[in-house]
Each structure stands twice: as structure tokens, then as C-alpha cells.
């Protein structure tokens, strides 16, 4: 099953409506016998997901206002991470900020050659706000994860593969995920779900959800800062 972020005119940025749609699809697909795996990708060729829609969220000024939005998406991100079947992020275009957090929540990340991605939250005076850093620390070596978070730079897919963030580079003109997943798709859905449960149990035992919640709270505090609001204003004015 393919899940499409369908806001190409906004570079597939996440707003409240997209959050609700994503949550609904995850709930419906989780125990749909026709769904063996879930592939997330972006509409169009320019962007996988550019993160949160800053124009929609720019009126969130206080820590409490920010926490309400961030924790809503954080719950969805955790739901994606523990989705009972394999998940693949097909990064077909740029993935910045929260877009990288969504990709991190997936079990595998495939990227088209040359696409750009980065945990750029630091350039806006905040940290990862949906729990993505806690997930990243589970997925790749800690030092490499920390470098990606701290430098807040934009990297090409090939460089991200060297970090271990991207699992495979796929060519233009192909979805790529079919070949990547063809071997394990031969198995019964019950087999795939049994192995995914082992991973989920590991995370549940390690306190992943609590760490994601703490991460969201940290971002909420920074969101309320003058530095963040000034950075958002500069970014939005530059986009005009």
C-alpha cells in the first residue's frame, strides 16, 4: 500500500489536515489483511516532505500552543514507528526537518539519486519536534546521528547513505521499492508482522515513547523563544 503526501504546491508540508489523514490511514491499514507493507512517498518530483507547514503553524507562540501541535504529530510518528507491518520511506524528492523525522520513523529509507535531505531544525532555533531524534538514535550509530542533528546541514542522498540513514539509492523513473522489498514480500503477512513485533517489543522495553515525549517537550520550550520566531519570520519573508 502506498501512502502519498499530496500537497505538492506546499512541497508536501505537514498541516493539521495531513496529520489527521495520516493517522486515519495508519489506523485502517494496520490490520487490513490486504496490506503487507506501507510505502510513504511525496506527490510530484520535487519533495518527499518539507516538514511542518510554517505558514500554518507560525501563529503558535507559547510553549503550550507548540506542545499541542508537536505532541499530536509525535503520537502519529510513534504510531508509524510501531506500525505492525514493514514500512518504507521512498524519498522521491527533498526531505527537510520534519520530513526527515517521518522518514526516520519508517523501517527502511530509499532515496532517489541526488535528492537533498537534512535535519535542519537547528537553523530555525528549535530541535526535532516530533520525536525524530530519539528514533534516529535507534536507527544509526549514535555519533553519526548526533552529527546529523547538530550540523543541521543539507546532505545529498548518497552522503546520507554513508551515514547509514539511507538504505538504498534508487534510480530515476522507477519506484525502486518493489525490487528492494520483493524477497520479504514473498512471505506470509503473519511472518512479517511477527518479526516487526520483535522490533516493537525492543523499543517498548527501552522507553522509546518516553524519550520521544521528552524530546517534544524540549522543542516546545525552544519554539516559544524569540530566536525561533525571528528565524521563522526570516524564512517566510525569504519565501515571498
Automatic annotation (TrEMBL):
The keyword Hydrolase does not apply. The keyword Lyase applies. GO terms for cellular component: cytosol. GO terms for molecular function: isomerase activity; methyl/ethyl malonyl-CoA decarboxylase activity. Gene3D superfamilies: 2-enoyl-CoA Hydratase, Chain A, domain 1 (3.90.226.10). Its main location: cytoplasm. Keywords: Cytoplasm, Isomerase, Lyase. Its EC number is 4.1.1.94. It is an enzyme of class 4 (lyase). Transmembrane segments: none annotated. It is found in: Cytoplasm, Cytosol. GO terms for biological process: fatty acid beta-oxidation. It holds the Pfam family ECH_1. InterPro entries: ClpP/crotonase-like_dom_sf, Enoyl-CoA_hyd/isom_CS, Enoyl-CoA_hydra/iso. It catalyses: (S)-methylmalonyl-CoA + H(+) = propanoyl-CoA + CO2; (2R)-ethylmalonyl-CoA + H(+) = butanoyl-CoA + CO2; (2S)-ethylmalonyl-CoA + H(+) = butanoyl-CoA + CO2. Belongs to the enoyl-CoA hydratase/isomerase family. Decarboxylates ethylmalonyl-CoA, a potentially toxic metabolite, to form butyryl-CoA, suggesting it might be involved in metabolite proofreading. Acts preferentially on (S)-ethylmalonyl-CoA but also has some activity on the (R)-isomer. Also has methylmalonyl-CoA decarboxylase activity at lower level. This is Ethylmalonyl-CoA decarboxylase. It comes from Peribacillus simplex. The lineage of its organism: Bacteria, Bacillati, Bacillota, Bacilli, Bacillales.
Amino acid at each position: 500500500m502506498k501512502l502519498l503526501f499530496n500537497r505538492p504546491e506546499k512541497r508536501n508540508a505537514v498541516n493539521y489536515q495531513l496529520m489527521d489523514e495520516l493517522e486515519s490511514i495508519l489506523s485502517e491499514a494496520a490490520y487490513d489483511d490486504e496490506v503487507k507493507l506501507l510505502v510513504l512517498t511525496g506527490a510530484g518530483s520535487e519533495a518527499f516532505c518539507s516538514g511542518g507547514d510554517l505558514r500554518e503553524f507560525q501563529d503558535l507562540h507559547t510553549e503550550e500552543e507548540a506542545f499541542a501541535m508537536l505532541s499530536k504529530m509525535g503520537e502519529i510518528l510513534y504510531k508509524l514507528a510501531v506500525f505492525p507491518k514493514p514500512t518504507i520511506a521512498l524519498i522521491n524528492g527533498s526531505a527537510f526537518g520534519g520530513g526527515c523525522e517521518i522518514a526516520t520513523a519508517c523501517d527502511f529509507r530509499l532515496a532517489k539519486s541526488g535528492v537533498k535531505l537534512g535535519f535542519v531544525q537547528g537553523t530555525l532555533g528549535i530541535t526535532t519536534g516530533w520525536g525524530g531524534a530519539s528514533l534516529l538514535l535507534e536507527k544509526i550509530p549514535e555519533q553519526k546521528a548526533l552529527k546529523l542533528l547538530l550540523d543541521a546541514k543539507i546532505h545529498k542522498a548518497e552522503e546520507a547513505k554513508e551515514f547509514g540513514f539511507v538504505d538504498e539509492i534508487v534510480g530515476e523513473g522507477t519506484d525502486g521499492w518493489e525490487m528492494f522489498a520483493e524477497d520479504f514480500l514473498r512471505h506470509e503477512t503473519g511472518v512479517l508482522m511477527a518479526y516487526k513485533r520483535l522490533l516493537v517489543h525492543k523499543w517498548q522495553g527501552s522507553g522509546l515513547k518516553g524519550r520521544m515525549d521528552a524530546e517534544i517537550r524540549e522543542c516546545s520550550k525552544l519554539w516559544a523563544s524569540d530566536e525561533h520566531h525571528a528565524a521563522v519570520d526570516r524564512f517566510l519573508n525569504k519565501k515571498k
